Amino acid sequence: MKYFKKDIGENGAKATFYLQEPNKEIDINRKSPVMIVVPGGAYMWTSWREEEPIALEFLSKGFSCVVAEYATEGLGFYDGKHDYSKDPVSAFPKPLTDLAKTIAYVRENADQWSLDSNSINVIGFSAGGNLTAQLGCYWQTDWLKDLVGKSSELFKPNSICLAYGAPHMSKAPEKDRYKQTKKMGGDGMINYATLGHDQSDERIKLVNMVDAVTDNVPPTFIWHTMEDPYVPVASALHFTEQLEDKMVPFELHIFQKGKHGLALADLRTDSKADRSQSNVQAASWKRLYLGWLKENGLINLF
Predict the structure, then answer these.
(1) Which residue from 85, 47, 88 is spatially nearest to 193, judged by alpha carbons?
(2) Which residues contact residue 157 at a Cβ distance below 8 angstroms, ignoring those fewer than 6 apart?
(3) pLDDT at site 168
């Protein structure tokens, strides 16, 4: 395995690479599919639980993996004791530009690293799911191409996956009917981390992805839980409704039980003493996702 880190862009973003290396004992010409892992953290920070453990899971399945750690201020910044007069590095569209540059870098080096440039798959968790949805909806836009400074085809994802992703990220209209939606850091801080000071209706619409879906969105896999206390399942359902309306190929799995932030949904990413981040049903998302990728011709690993 080839392992290294790289700074991305000028905002403080980083990418960590876990790359398969072909071996002559098996197939020296084999090209591995790619999994780009986009962690959550409400744009305030990036969660380790949704970074390396996810990459290692898919590395073990034959993928080359890249953790796209877009720039944030870090959770400690949001304690109410810092200077909030300037926009944070996480304000839209900086994380999207970071992610697009990461994917372009991967595709530009695909031959050198024995990667399948036609199987670059992006999986985003929570706020990372929002960012992944942004990429899926905006990859072909001229404004993003100008920000990245590269051809749109270089950062086009071949598929996207929203793992309890947040299609509505700012001032969401949906209410969780199953339990009161909690406010991590307060609504104001989440909106500030996502948008900065310009929270105009136009910018809110740009980060709330339900109405941004076009027929250019790549095939999409979504999994969520009905009981999610942070991202109401209605967001996933509304996003899926728009995919269906635009005839974008998709697969949707809603698990009844499970907290927000399940990650692998087993002990490897369970940080709770009561083991409430482990869930047998929800943990099956990995098998379902791999099957979906195979059905869509994006992997040939089993």
Answers:
(1) 88
(2) 36, 103, 120, 121, 122, 132, 135, 136, 139, 218
(3) 85
The dihedral of CA 66, 70, 74, 75: what is its sign? negative
Cα 267 from Cα 57, distance rounded (Å): 13
Q: Which residues make Cβ contacts (< 8 Å) with residue 107, sequence separation at least 6? A: 117, 120, 154, 155
Cβ atoms within 10 Å, residue 142: 8
Consecutive H or E run containing 154 = none
Computed over every residue of the chain, the mean pLDDT equals 93
pLDDT in tens, 60-83: 999 999 999 999 999 999 998 999
User: Which amino acid type is present at position 11?
Assistant: N
pLDDT for residue 252: 98
Place of tokens 């509304």: 238
pTM listed for this prediction: 0.95
What is d(CA 288, CA 107) in angstroms, rounded to the nearest whole number?
Answer: 26
Label residue 167 exposed, middle or buried (CB < 10 Å: 0-12, 13-18, 19+): buried
Q: State residue 173's pLDDT score.
A: 60
Q: Is 6 helix (H, G, I), strand (E, B) or coil?
A: strand
| Furthest C-alpha separation in the chain | 58
Cα–Cα distance for residue pair 213/233, rounded to 1 Å:
18
CA 37-40-45 angle, 5° bins: 115
Q: Any bridge partners for residue 15, and if so which?
A: 6, 68
pLDDT digit string, tens, across residues 88-145: 999 999 999 999 999 999 999 999 999 999 999 999 999 999 999 999 999 999 999 9
- All structural domains of the chain: 2-295 (3.40.50.1820)
